[in-house]
């Protein structure tokens, strides 16, 4: 089976998600080959300072808020969104971070406009009409492309002049683009690079912020697990800055993150198209059939996960994913097969860093004003935010 795209409706808008997730066949494997090295464990280690800096900025703000009374009530969702955006801006654009943030702001506006379009009645062809929203969408898209093009050109110039590489995602792509110029069809075109940069924002930021916000909500709802996670963090890391080795040793935190990904997968379903006739169990699917993989339903299926499928029970992952799933493909928050999420290690590392730093400094509970309402707006988000009462660790 082949992937159609990360999120069916998004592609219909044609603006948000491009790059790898929309490609097929040779084009896809060429891009994937170029991008894979950027996500290797050793490269991820180099990105840890960027993760730390962004998490630290968020936590410093929270520390200031709790400093007076020892506690503070806040909606953590916008802070987390901002932090994950910051992480991907630093990791993707390194030295051009400020400029990258500007582009991400434009992409955020584009996402909001696209959600607005999703929430209206769908009329085929409507997107071609010069309505106010459609005109705005087109303009934002043009601005994003122009800003990225400028940034890419400047990087190209610097690399050709022999300046040292920033080792960020953008440099990896730009170097590939230079190779494309030198030997046709070996790398990516400038348009390809633009599309991949847009994809990093969408695939890397939206999803990770969703994972973190549900983790905070569930740990606030289940204080026993919050204590277990904090005990582990303090045992492994003390109050030290988290390093790669320490983060890799956080077993309970990993179990919790997996259980959150099971109950609240950021991507609730995947679409696949069938290129040629195939027999699937008792079904004969003709070529051209589109199949929907309902990740959310699979993750909640009692036949596979047991009667407690709807409950938060991180202990089911105590002996890893394959034991929890009895080696069946029933846990697929990052997809499955060759198209599996390229950024899953990046996301897990970032989530562990953020959770470790939060648990080192605060304990937290749900505010009475929190209304639980997961809703799919491209990803599975908390519709009314995540109102949490943060307490300085050590205070009652
Ligand atoms: C909790 C965080 C994340 C979740 C839940 C997630 C989920 C997914 C899913 C479900 C897919 C589709 C896989 C398939 O079709 O089988 C995907 C693809 C992808 N993700 Fe992620 N993702 C996350 C974080 C990231 C990050 C941090 C990045 C990059 C920095 C990223 C980049 C991508 C890319 C480029 C693809 C397309 C891969 C391809 O088509 O070859 N993701 N992701």
UniProtKB/TrEMBL annotation:
It holds the Pfam family p450. InterPro entries: Cyt_P450, Cyt_P450_CS, Cyt_P450_E_grp-I, Cyt_P450_sf, Cytochrome_P450_Monooxygen. Heme binds at residue 341. GO terms for molecular function: heme binding; iron ion binding; monooxygenase activity; oxidoreductase activity, acting on paired donors, with incorporation or reduction of molecular oxygen. It comes from the Eukaryota. The keyword Cell cycle does not apply. Transmembrane segments: none annotated. This is Cytochrome P450. It comes from Gossypium tomentosum (Hawaiian cotton). The lineage of its organism: Eukaryota, Viridiplantae, Streptophyta, Embryophyta, Tracheophyta.
């Amino acid at each position: 089976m082949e992937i159609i795209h990360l999120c069916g409706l998004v592609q219909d808008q044609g603006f948000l998600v491009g790059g790898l997730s929309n490609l097929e066949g040779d084009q896809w494997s060429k891009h994937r080959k170029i991008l894979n090295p950027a996500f290797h464990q050793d490269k991820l280690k180099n990105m840890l300072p960027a993760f730390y800096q962004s998490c630290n900025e968020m936590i410093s703000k929270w520390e200031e808020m709790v400093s007076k009374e020892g506690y503070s009530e806040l909606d953590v969702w916008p802070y987390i969104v901002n932090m994950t955006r910051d992480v991907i801006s630093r990791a993707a654009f390194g030295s051009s971070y400020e400029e990258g943030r500007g582009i991400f702001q434009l992409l955020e506006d584009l996402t909001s406009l696209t959600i607005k379009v999703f929430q209206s009645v769908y009329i085929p062809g409507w997107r071609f009409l010069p309505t106010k929203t459609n005109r705005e969408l087109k303009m934002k898209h043009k601005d994003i492309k122009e800003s990225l093009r400028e940034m890419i050109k400047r990087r190209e110039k610097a690399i050709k002049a022999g300046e040292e590489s920033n080792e960020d995602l953008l440099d990896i792509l730009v170097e590939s683009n230079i190779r494309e110029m030198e030997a046709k069809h070996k790398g990516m075109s400038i348009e390809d690079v633009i599309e991949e940069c847009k994809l990093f924002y969408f695939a890397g930021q939206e999803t990770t912020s969703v994972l973190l916000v549900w983790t905070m909500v569930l740990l606030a709802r289940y204080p026993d697990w919050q204590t277990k996670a904090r005990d582990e963090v303090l045992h492994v890391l003390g109050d030290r800055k988290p390093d790669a080795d320490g983060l890799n040793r956080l077993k309970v935190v990993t179990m919790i993150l997996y259980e959150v990904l099971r109950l609240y997968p950021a991507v609730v379903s995947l679409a696949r198209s069938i290129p040629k006739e195939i027999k699937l169990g008792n079904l004969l699917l003709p070529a051209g059939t589109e199949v929907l993989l309902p990740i959310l339903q699979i993750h909640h299926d009692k036949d596979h996960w047991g009667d407690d499928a709807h409950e938060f029970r991180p202990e089911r992952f105590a002996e890893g994913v394959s034991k929890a799933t009895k080696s069946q493909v029933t846990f697929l928050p990052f997809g499955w097969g060759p198209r599996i999420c390229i950024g899953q290690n990046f996301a897990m590392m970032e989530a562990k860093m953020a959770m470790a730093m939060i648990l080192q400094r605060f304990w937290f509970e749900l505010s009475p004003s929190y209304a639980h309402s997961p809703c799919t707006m491209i990803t599975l988000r908390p519709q009314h935010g995540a109102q949490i009462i943060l307490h300085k660790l050590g205070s009652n």
